[in-house]
Amino acid sequence: MSAAGTRALPRRPAVRLTGLGFGAAQGGNLYHATSDETFQGAVDAAWDAGIRYFDTAPHYGLGLSERRLGAALRTRPRDAFVVSTKVGRLLVPSPQTAQQRDPEGFDVPAALRREWDFSRDGVLRSLEASLQRTGLDRIDVVYLHDPDDHWDQAAKQAVPALAELRDQGVIGAVGAGMNQSAMLARFVRETDVDLVMCAGRYTLLEQGALEDLLPAATERGVGVVIAGVYNSGLLARDRPPADATYNYQPAPAELIDRARRIADACEAHGVNLPAAALAFVRRHPAVVSTVVGLRSAAQVEQTLQRASAAVPDALWPALRAAGLLPAE
Description:
alpha/beta
């Protein structure tokens, strides 16, 4: 995978994403604290490697990720990179919890709280706040973030509001990002989105998106960005450990066994499991980019090595023959 190679969104050819995207949730202190300097080093290393697509969200560290990413990119030529952020969670002051830590997995003070809002006014306010936090003059791609329980408002208010901004040239593209594929397929078929971000549902471990999202995206010319390529940890090591995580929870024993069988096949073909996981998702023609969460320059280097590893074509039929991938 070339980090520097780009693909245009089929419906919005002016928006081009690098094959490898920088996921900035770790810049929001996901799971544990990261220093400004470490995160800046990650962005610099990614830039030096040719990565030009950076993804963030207000949810990530209650705005910390957006602030850090904006600061890290501020000296770069604005037309040289693409930034996506997300709407659907407004950040509102919460002085009563300011002495606590954020309960949603980010090591930051809970001085703000998230408030679901996919209304027209809510998404416009969210986007304006993101512009202020990043300090950027524009956001290129705006995703609806986890609208699982908010279909009507998201489809009938949020998408049309963002499509209006897109058609005015204020933003470049409109999308939706979720941890499920079925509703993403509905967004593709029933609304005016240009791309979707699918986390965890199209990976070397599971391919549910083949049943709904990927056929819809191919038919409608909607780009697919894959996130969660390691299924939140289960595919992140050469050999899945007994305490591996899946969907951010302890992985069930049967999934660990399946991942180990995949790892065995990878090893037999001279490639490690994480490298094969990255290679697998980019084989589908609808996939325009793969976003990987990156915290440090060392993680960037490791990911680049994995992404550039040679994966023999013979691996895929071997996995299908073993019942570890669906038949083509």
